[in-house]
């Protein structure tokens, strides 16, 4: 039986930390060697970290990337494992590349052919596309090498690798960002590719957070029938080793021989020859990690994004305002899960409009989470603002100006604590608020990281309910789930005075932002035309706020940030 033992190193790099990234790659190599693996996969652009963005224009960065690769190459001497590791290759231009390393030498380099330039991707800004296929031969066993987007292309390079060259295993090193449902979608898509081409596929994905992007890992291997052989854990580093039966390809092709009739033009290909894989005494039982539920998946993505942003940027502790509402409650829970209760500080900042219930709920939440809190009232400072502005306002009636002053005092308090103690300020606004501008610039938007900025309000509640169930007790107080959402900036205020019910609002926002429907199409879905018009008007009017809001973890198909590049100066309006 023809088998190849494959190890997928699902690792979390830090952009620009060449020493740390190489250390992780070396450890994975040692483990793969101990397991007698024939092939080791390390994610796309792992050596420099991904995405490097405009660091890719710095020649010093490119040289450091090459030096780090050389250090890893040296460590492979006397290790009988072929390693495929992502790095940036350059000569007259720059390439997103994979180095094939064996026994202290770079045996070959594959340059990514298909460069994504959509959503958060901007690879055509930085890289030139490769133009040659790469195939590894372990005796008679054929392994094709691809990088990320190559596997998502409708035909090539799989058609040439499999139908043209007879590849029995395709490996893909990737840095595939997360959005809700992406792990299942990705696995389903690639498994169907495996079945369509009758080829085993091993998918090695990056894990961890980089600014607003989070990578879920969820690496996997499927056979020539498209059946799952093994799956890594999600949102954590993992080492997955599996024996892939390459004879399975022949059995499948004999019963379903459609590959015989596929016409393939000759594509330029480099072939690297290695020894036949040695037969292993013991066949490994592959591990298949259980997939997360939707709410668990979102929660772990938010935890991963926050944890890595804090740690990779040199922070240890965070601080946030606790209002007794759902948003700040969930953010506090995420922060504790990501960093530990000892590294999370909560601040109660009551005003004359803050209800007793809000103070009780915020205090109970903090007690349940085990975090330290401070109470800093805003009343006197607020009164001072009003007195200072009295002559200028000339007895004008109160409006949102006075409400926003309160929010900005609170933002000022939090930033003062950040300056004094070095704590990172977490903002607590959700995507529904940010979309409609239901937030105060330099107030509740003031901070360093917006944890749930890409989470709609209705999902905030769903995740919170799941979190309490997961913990097996009521950490977020029950009253927080049932009381009407309110900013408490004036008497008897509720969110629904200015916003449609969140179920309606989020439905419209999802259709407009995530799915790209226009106003008329949204109305045809059953939404009231006047409500749709109001919501879209709020979205357009709030672009300047979103541009100045802190970054936060992307978990949706289209998040505000790199996904959303709308001009602020813009007279276009859709007509219903």
Automatic annotation (TrEMBL):
<keyword id="KW-0520">NAD</keyword>
<feature type="binding site">
    <location>
        <position position="428"/>
    </location>
    <ligand>
        <name>ATP</name>
    </ligand>
</feature>
<comment type="similarity">
    <text>Belongs to the NAD synthetase family.</text>
</comment>
<dbReference type="InterPro" id="IPR003694">
    <property type="entry name" value="NAD_synthase"/>
</dbReference>
<dbReference type="GO" id="GO:0008795">
    <property type="term" value="F:NAD+ synthase activity"/>
</dbReference>
<feature type="active site" description="Nucleophile; for glutaminase activity">
    <location>
        <position position="148"/>
    </location>
</feature>
<comment type="similarity">
    <text>In the C-terminal section; belongs to the NAD synthetase family.</text>
</comment>
<feature type="domain" description="CN hydrolase">
    <location>
        <begin position="4"/>
        <end position="246"/>
    </location>
</feature>
<feature type="active site" description="For glutaminase activity">
    <location>
        <position position="112"/>
    </location>
</feature>
<dbReference type="GO" id="GO:0005524">
    <property type="term" value="F:ATP binding"/>
</dbReference>
<dbReference type="InterPro" id="IPR014729">
    <property type="entry name" value="Rossmann-like_a/b/a_fold"/>
</dbReference>
<dbReference type="Pfam" id="PF00795">
    <property type="entry name" value="CN_hydrolase"/>
</dbReference>
<dbReference type="GO" id="GO:0003952">
    <property type="term" value="F:NAD+ synthase (glutamine-hydrolyzing) activity"/>
</dbReference>
<dbReference type="InterPro" id="IPR003010">
    <property type="entry name" value="C-N_Hydrolase"/>
</dbReference>
<dbReference type="InterPro" id="IPR022310">
    <property type="entry name" value="NAD/GMP_synthase"/>
</dbReference>
<feature type="binding site">
    <location>
        <position position="118"/>
    </location>
    <ligand>
        <name>L-glutamine</name>
    </ligand>
</feature>
<dbReference type="InterPro" id="IPR014445">
    <property type="entry name" value="Gln-dep_NAD_synthase"/>
</dbReference>
<dbReference type="GO" id="GO:0004359">
    <property type="term" value="F:glutaminase activity"/>
</dbReference>
<feature type="binding site">
    <location>
        <position position="433"/>
    </location>
    <ligand>
        <name>deamido-NAD(+)</name>
    </ligand>
</feature>
<keyword id="KW-0547">Nucleotide-binding</keyword>
<keyword id="KW-0067">ATP-binding</keyword>
<dbReference type="GO" id="GO:0009435">
    <property type="term" value="P:NAD+ biosynthetic process"/>
</dbReference>
<feature type="binding site">
    <location>
        <position position="176"/>
    </location>
    <ligand>
        <name>L-glutamine</name>
    </ligand>
</feature>
<keyword id="KW-0436">Ligase</keyword>
<protein>
    <recommendedName>
        <fullName>Glutamine-dependent NAD(+) synthetase</fullName>
        <ecNumber>6.3.5.1</ecNumber>
    </recommendedName>
</protein>
<feature type="binding site">
    <location>
        <begin position="321"/>
        <end position="328"/>
    </location>
    <ligand>
        <name>ATP</name>
    </ligand>
</feature>
<dbReference type="InterPro" id="IPR036526">
    <property type="entry name" value="C-N_Hydrolase_sf"/>
</dbReference>
<comment type="pathway">
    <text>Cofactor biosynthesis; NAD(+) biosynthesis; NAD(+) from deamido-NAD(+) (L-Gln route): step 1/1.</text>
</comment>
<comment type="function">
    <text>Catalyzes the ATP-dependent amidation of deamido-NAD to form NAD. Uses L-glutamine as a nitrogen source.</text>
</comment>
<feature type="active site" description="Proton acceptor; for glutaminase activity">
    <location>
        <position position="44"/>
    </location>
</feature>
<dbReference type="Pfam" id="PF02540">
    <property type="entry name" value="NAD_synthase"/>
</dbReference>
<feature type="binding site">
    <location>
        <position position="404"/>
    </location>
    <ligand>
        <name>deamido-NAD(+)</name>
    </ligand>
</feature>
<dbReference type="GO" id="GO:0005737">
    <property type="term" value="C:cytoplasm"/>
</dbReference>
<feature type="binding site">
    <location>
        <position position="182"/>
    </location>
    <ligand>
        <name>L-glutamine</name>
    </ligand>
</feature>
<feature type="binding site">
    <location>
        <position position="545"/>
    </location>
    <ligand>
        <name>deamido-NAD(+)</name>
    </ligand>
</feature>
């Amino acid at each position: 039986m023809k088998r190849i033992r494959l190890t997928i190193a699902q690792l979390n790099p830090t952009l620009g930390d060449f020493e740390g990234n190489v250390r992780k790659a070396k450890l994975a190599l040692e483990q793969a060697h101990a397991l007698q693996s024939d092939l080791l996969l390390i994610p796309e652009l792992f050596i420099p970290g991904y995405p490097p963005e405009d660091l890719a224009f710095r020649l010093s960065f490119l040289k450091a990337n090459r030096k780090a690769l050389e250090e890893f190459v040296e460590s492979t001497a006397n290790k009988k494992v072929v390693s495929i590791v992502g790095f940036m290759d350059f000569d007259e231009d720059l390439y997103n590349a994979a180095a094939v390393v064996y026994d202290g030498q770079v045996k070959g380099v594959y340059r990514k052919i298909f460069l994504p330039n959509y959503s958060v991707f901007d690879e055509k800004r930085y890289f030139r596309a490769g133009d040659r296929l790469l195939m590894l031969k372990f005796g008679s066993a054929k392994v094709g090498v691809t990088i990320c987007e190559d596997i998502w292309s409708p035909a090539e390079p799989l058609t040439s690798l499999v139908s043209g060259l007879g590849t029995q295993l395709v490996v893909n090193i990737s840095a595939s960002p997360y959005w809700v449902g992406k792990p299942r979608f990705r696995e389903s898509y690639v498994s169907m590719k495996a079945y369509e081409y009758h080829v085993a596929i091993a998918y090695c994905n990056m894990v961890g957070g980089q600014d607003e992007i989070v990578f879920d890992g969820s690496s996997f291997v499927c056979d020539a029938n498209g059946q799952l052989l093994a799956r890594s854990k999600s949102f954590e580093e993992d080492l997955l080793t599996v024996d892939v039966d390459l004879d399975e390809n022949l059995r499948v092709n004999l019963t379903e021989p459609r590959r015989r009739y596929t016409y393939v033009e000759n594509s330029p290909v480099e072939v690297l020859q290695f020894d036949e894989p040695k037969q292993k005494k013991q066949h490994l039982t592959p591990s298949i990690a259980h997939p997360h539920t939707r709410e668990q998946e979102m929660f772990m993505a938010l935890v991963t994004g926050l944890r890595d942003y804090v740690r990779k940027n040199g922070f240890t502790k965070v601080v946030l305002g606790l209002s007794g509402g759902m948003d700040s409650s969930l953010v506090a829970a995420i922060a504790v899960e990501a960093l530990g209760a000892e590294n999370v500080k909560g601040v109660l900042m009551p005003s004359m409009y803050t209800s007793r219930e809000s103070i009780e709920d915020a205090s109970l939440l903090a007690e349940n989470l085990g975090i330290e809190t401070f109470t800093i009232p805003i009343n006197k400072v607020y009164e001072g603002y009003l007195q200072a502005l009295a002559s200028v306002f000339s007895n004008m009636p109160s409006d949102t100006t006075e409400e926003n002053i309160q929010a900005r005092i609170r933002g000022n308090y939090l930033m003062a604590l950040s300056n004094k103690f070095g704590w990172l300020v977490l903002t607590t606004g959700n995507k529904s608020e940010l979309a409609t501008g239901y937030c105060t610039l330099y107030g509740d938007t003031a901070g360093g990281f917006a944890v749930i900025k890409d989470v709609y309000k209705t999902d905030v509640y769903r995740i919170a309910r799941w979190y309490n169930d997961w913990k097996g007790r009521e950490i977020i107080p029950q009253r927080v789930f049932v009381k009407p959402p309110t900013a408490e900036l004036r008497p008897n205020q509720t969110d629904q005075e200015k916003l449609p019910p969140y179920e309606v609002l989020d439905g419209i926002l999802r259709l407009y932002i995530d799915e790209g429907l226009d106003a008329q199409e949204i109305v045809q879905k059953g939404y009231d035309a006047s409500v749709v018009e109001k919501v879209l008007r709020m979205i357009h009017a709030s672009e300047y706020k979103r541009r100045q809001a802190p970054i936060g973890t992307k978990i949706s198909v289209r998040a505000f940030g790199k996904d959303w590049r709308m001009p602020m100066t813009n007279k276009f309006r859709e007509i219903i």
